[in-house]
Amino acid sequence: MKELLHLGLQLGGWSLVVLCIASLWIPKMLGWREKVAGLTPLMREVWWTYSCYIWGSHVFFAVLALGFPDWLTGRSPAAAAMSGFMLLWWSVRLWLQFFGYDLAEVATTPANRIAKHLLTLLFLSLVTLYSLLLAWNAGWIGTGEL
Amino acid sequence: MNPLLLETALRVAGLILAGLTLANFVAARRFAYRENLAASAVMVRQVFQVHCAYIVAIISALALLCLGWPGLLLDDGMGRVLSAFFGLFWLSRVIVQLSYYDRQTRRLNRGWDLFFLGVFLVLAAIFTLAALPR
Fold first, then answer.
1. For residue B12, what are the contacts with CB-CB under 8 A and spacing of at least 6?
2. Interface of A with B in 79-118 (CB under 8 A)
């Protein structure tokens, strides 16, 4: 099971790297600069600042998954807490994907449709990965061979 | 630096972070987020609300960690990596405040501007010290 989780963390980590790189194009693809132009300067600045910090958090999650798989599968309370936090993070994002975001303003081009499905798949995979990781670290699933 | 002193400093950071969590809600009222976003595109409004919620989640989770388990942030390996990340997180927030935020808004709210600069600096210093090798 631990080997499987390590493989999952490698795949999840690299997927996050791809997400972080692809995210750099999101403002251009969705016309964020034009859309936030009508906000007050402070609101616009907070908007971009928060977006950058969320992006930075995703980079950090990628670093954790790729650089510290032993720690993340170490069955320590800290590893369980971190897995739980990331599970909550991606679960909320998955929920938003289906029920939160109103995508009516996004043009339904083939590229946007593919991007949306890929994102949904990524969030589903990350929720699965961190659920397993939390279950492992909490001792809910055993050490048996798969 | 003495680990006991660092633990105490991290608990103080936890209290500051709990205050910052609350400050996010006060700022939303003071700067009329809802009214300012009312006329904007749905996407802008939703992304802003979601990002605000995630930022509050990060800060409150960190507050909980600092108040309840400061020792975890001082552990070799992962603990120090976490501390380094948050040291960078708060140091970058100081730089953002000084170089990116609107000067006129800062001038009009000079007291709060200086207060939050101080808060971000203290947090950056505590987490950076926690990340340093001992």
1. B126
2. 81, 85, 88-89, 92, 96, 100-102, 104-106
Q: Do B41 and A105 touch (CB under 8 A)?
A: yes
Contact B51 A54 (CB under 8 A): yes
Which strand (E) or helix (H) includes residue B121? helix B110-131
Instruction: Copy the structure tokens of residue A108.
Output: 């339904």
Q: Are A58 and A19 in contact (CB under 8 A)?
A: yes
Contact A50 B46 (CB under 8 A): no
The whole-angstrom separation of Cα B75 and Cα A74 is: 14
Contacts of A90 (CB under 8 A, 6+ apart): A123, A126, A127, A130
- The answer to ipTM > 0.90 is no
Summarize pLDDT for A21-67 with one digit per residue, the tens: 999 998 998 889 998 988 888 899 999 999 999 999 999 999 999 99
- Which pLDDT tens digit goes with each residue over B37-93? 988 889 899 999 999 999 999 999 999 999 999 999 998 788 899 999 999 999 999
